[in-house]
Amino acid sequence: MNGTFWLPMLVLGSSLLPGLLIFFLAEDRSGIRTLLNLAGAVAKLLAVLWMLWGVYNGVAYEARLPFLPGLDLVLRVGPLSLLFVVLSTGLWLLTTIYAIGYLERSPHRSRFFGFFSLCVTATVGVAMAGNLLTFVLFYELLTLATYPLVVHRGSEAARQAGQVYLAHTLFGGALLLAGTVWLYTLTGTLEFTPRGFVSHLGETHRGSLIAIFALTVVGVGVKAALVPLHSWLPRAMVAPAPVSALLHAVAVVKAGAFGVVRLLYDVFGAEFAASLGVTGPLAVVAGATILYGSLRALYQDDLKRRLAFSTVSQVAYITLGVAIAGPLATIGGLVHLVHQGVMKITLFFCAGNLAETLGIHKVSEMCGVGRRMPWTMAAFTVGAFGMIGLPPVAGFVTKWYLGIGALEAGQDWAVYVLAGSSLLNAAYFLPILHVAWFRPPPPAWPHEHDFGPRETAWALLLPPVVTAILSVAVGLFAAAPFSPLEWATLIAEREFYLP
Amino acid sequence: MIPNLASPGWAVALIFIPLLGAMLAFLLPRIGVTLGLLAAVLTAGSVLPLLPMLAAHGATNIRIGGWGAPLGIELSIDGLTMAMLAMTALVGIAVSAYATCYLRPVPSRPDGQPDLQQRHFWPLWLVLWAALNALFLSSDIFNLYVTLELLGLAAVALTALSGGADALNGAMRYLLVSLLGSLGYLLGVALLYHAYGTLDLGLLALRVGDETVTRAALGAMTAGLLVKTALFPLHFWLPPAHASASAPVSALLSALVVKASFYLLLRLWLTLFGDLDSGLATLLGVLGAIAILWGSIQALRQARLKLLIAYSTVAQIGYLFLAFPLAATGGAVVWGAAVYLVLSHALAKAAMFLTAGSLLRFGAHDRIADLDRVVHRLPITIGAFTLAGVSIMGLPPSGGFIGKWLLLQAAFSQGRWGLALVMLAGGLLAAAYVFKVIGYAFTPAVVPHQAGLVPPTMEWTALALGAGAILLGFAWPLLWPLLEIGMPFGALAPDPGAAVGPWLGGPRILAP
Amino acid sequence: MTPASLYALVGVGLIVLGLYALSVHAHLLRKLLAFNVTGSGVFLVLVGLARRTPAAAADPVPQAMVLTGIVVAVAATALAVVLMLRVQATCGRAALNDDLGTLEPLQPPPTPPAGGPAASAGSAEGAPPALTGTTAHAP
Fold first, then answer.
1. Cα dihedral B272, B274, B279, B285 in deg (nearest 10)
2. A291: which residues sit within 8 A by CB, 6+ positions away?
3. CA distance B168 to chain C (A)
4. C3-91 domain in CATH 1.10.287.3510?
5. How far apart are CA C8 and CA C43, in angstroms?
6. Are B439 and A162 in contact (CB < 8 Å)?
């Protein structure tokens, strides 16, 4: 019991405990609630940064708890975990600030922030899980913690969206559980190991292993919104904006995509999975998802729905990258985990600002909004450019690595998918920008709130501006130490080149 | 010498205290509630000293009045018994606390007398508790019959207590079914005694062989106990009875009473009938699988909360019976999983029925679609329901998950894909019916209802039970060694040197 | 065939007869009688099997068990008769309601007009609605 044990526990506990405390706070104790939220978020960030330094210097963080006969609950922090932990922790801090501003006057904040904290707890749990059992545990916890956020508004539409969300995610969870148990009965272990722990089963259990791969990948693919399991995501847009940001950029879809990475690299191993012949179909599904999501996004007038289909498409980049399974494509996929996160959260923050400040929910209502809310729309523009893949925003780095990775692996078709998707991205984002910046504003906004001299509340404005700056920074300084790209390279090296 | 605190006399106290409390509460109705509560606390407290005794000495047989088997009646206690006693005590104390609020007459009667329900609840419930403890402790098959009958009669009377037409109807049907089940069991007792000349379980285990009469006894006893455990298709009596009783009673019936007959069946199976290759295990497994699907689908179709919860019990009982075919090769761990499901279902289902009671008190109805934003107004109650629901669905981390994982593991490693599929489907169906309730708790009803007052005790006891079901999910490493005391499930390791504890040379025998 | 096994066989016959009657008769009193017949059958089996070999003396233990069983059966019958009378008083007939699982709603859905809130407030005050059934019958 020392630092290597307690640091991962601290990362979990720094949102779990405040979350549980917040549940029992009276509704009007907003001071204490904000303090708990922010203190938890900052403590988590500090602990994560400490671990980042430690892992960089080769420290192995591990916490173990006996759980089942022969199986422990394991939290282990390696480079891959950290990539996701840093992302979710950093963005959680910003999302918390944003949510405090967004929900300023709305009821039931104690419940909201309680589940909000549980949600992040589950996400870092997913990230730090050291074996598949622990992964499953936090993965299901994430489903449960996000449900009350999705139905938070309590309308009939919210309830139905919640049912759809659960029907998808719990079904996925059941498949994942089935695959996990089956795998355990074959291997007798579930510990994540670089390059997998099943390759020794080789030919004798080939059929079973393919079935297990299918079960588990579909299980995590539901949350990663792979077509045709994506339909919960656009429907979940009834939730408040910070929840959408959380679902899309930080927690749920990312947990799914991260699950795909874990399965491919630490359970099956990229090479062995390729020899089973399962990576090809997965890459094709991811490619189809990319194109399908972009196509559907074209036809959405509702801004959040357009962003939602954009997420469907963008998250599949991660799956595509790891499924192509070459070193460079892997780097592209992994780094997109972070890049998509900061870019998409910017877009959702901005969409939330438009809705909260001016009552704008549709693209067609956005005429001239750039003049009324220049900072917000500037941040939105940066995010949109990133999604299209314009340098120097982060999205460009991703597409570059994915493209040359696909060529390197001889999967030329993926390049066409990327190019087509970029065109489609431009086709659904550029009209928004045109409308916002170059059309004259209407005489009155649909539902305007007065925030005094500023364009909106500072808590709403700060987070998107910060994430927009981050989106540019991770693109510009991609070669700097500790950049997401460097980190992804480190992980890919471990998977492909180290003995 | 054994220190007094660890005396096996506590086992006798477990039967004696609630019986005495029942009599006093009946004779002195003015202070009946106080007496009942006191007896409940003392009974639950008496379980505690047994734990160190068991840990120190292993399985123990206690000779009442110094008379041993075959003539005397022995009580015996091992890990399985201990778990059941502890489960009863936990649920019992929570339900007792809840009942003081739930059954309080509002407004109170002018003559200061508690109302009829309150007045009769305590004696009956304490008799029920005594019967449960006696059943878990007995190792004499005829004595078990007596406890089984006592249990059934007390349970029926409690069901009828709420007095409505539904409750009376449900109770009447329950009584007939329960009596019939007991007769089946008694017939088995007669056959076993005729064949082997003893009623003591331990002695029977030594003498019993694969003969026609044993099989006949197995059939009669299993059939009788299945009726009482409400395994599909013999479950028909359960939903009306459990749904129409008042909430604390429903909690007791679903959490404890059904488990008692399951425990008895399990005990008989483990000590007497386990080695008979009768195909019955497969049959039980198939019926269990159908029960899971049928019960869950019925639960999903219900418009009323208490009926939903009752059908959920039918489904969850099905899981317990999956252990029978799986244990043949899966061994002790599979039985452990079944017992784990018994424990977690007891906590979770009691929590659910208690929350249903709170919701009834709040809205004066239990129509699911009209729950009318209760999540804002009774957040603790809905929280309790959710925690319990998580365990019922078998999502991690919860007691239900542990049990389900171990059963799934056994099913997969034995290649029983059908059972695995049923378990997974049952989990999804359970999620569907649990979240049906939770979803409607968020939305407003067409007609907003006048809210009744729900005392905090009612909310918090349910939450405590629900939280208990979740915490069970982390307790396997602690509970499994306890369950294994006395090896109720048979030896784990073939190597005797590896697993020998101080209790393995046969149970220690004590007179209180 | 020894007298003992004759007793046992008659016992089995009684059990079958009782079970048959239990399933075909709707009236609760008949069901109750059928249960008692079945019970007597089981007791007869117990006593009949007490003499394990024709030569040996009868074992007293089964007889003690039967005595206990009779006591239990009397108690159970008493409870059943009371319940039956209550069922008849409440439902108007001494038979089980056959539509299983479709219990009537505890209360009719409240109606929005003026009387609604007051009425539901009143019942929310009282303990669970099942109680209202009893109070309605109280004089």
1. 110
2. A313, A417, A420, A421, A424
3. 6
4. yes
5. 9
6. yes
**Mean of all residue pLDDT scores within chain C:** 71
Helix (H, G, I), strand (E, B) or coil at B511: coil
CA dihedral sign of residues A424, A428, A429, A433: positive
- For chain B, say whether A205 makes contact (Cβ under 8 Å): no
> Chains with 3 or more CB pairs closer than 8 angstroms to C?
B
What's the Cα-to-Cα distance from B223 to each of B185, C17, C23, C98, rounded to whole Å? 8, 18, 16, 23
Digit-coded pLDDT (tens) for B360-384: 888 888 888 888 888 888 889 999 9
A-chain residues near B438 (CB < 8 A):
147
Which of B390-394, C37-41, C49-53 shows the lowest mean pLDDT across its residues? Answer: C49-53
Longest dimension (CA), chain A: 72
What is the tens place of the pLDDT at every residue in B296-317? 999 999 999 999 999 999 999 9
The two three-digit tokens of residue B391, written as one number: 């365990």
Question: How much of chain B exceeds pLDDT 70, in percent?
Answer: 90
Q: What ipTM does this complex have?
A: 0.92
Does A144 touch chain B if contact means CB atoms closer than 8 Å? yes
> Which of C62, C72, C109 is closest, CB to CB, to B149?
C72
| Min distance B407 CA to chain A CA atoms (Å) | 10
User: Taking the CB of residue A302, how many other CB atoms lie within 10 A of it?
Assistant: 15
Helix axes B332-363, B456-471, angle to 10 degrees: 160
Residues in chain A with CB shorter than 8 Å from the CB of B375 are: 111, 154
**B460 contacts chain A (CB < 8 A):** no
**Residue range A79-137, pLDDT digits in tens:** 889 999 999 999 989 999 998 888 877 888 888 889 989 999 999 999 999 999 999 99
Alpha carbon distance B167, B144 (integer Å)? 28
Q: Which of A107, A111, A154 minimises the CB distance to B443?
A: A154
Length of chain C, in residues: 139
Sorted by where each begins, the domain ranges of chain B are 295-492
> What are the φ/ψ torsions at residue C27 (nearest 5 degrees)?
-65, 135
Q: Does A68 touch chain B (CB under 8 A)?
A: yes
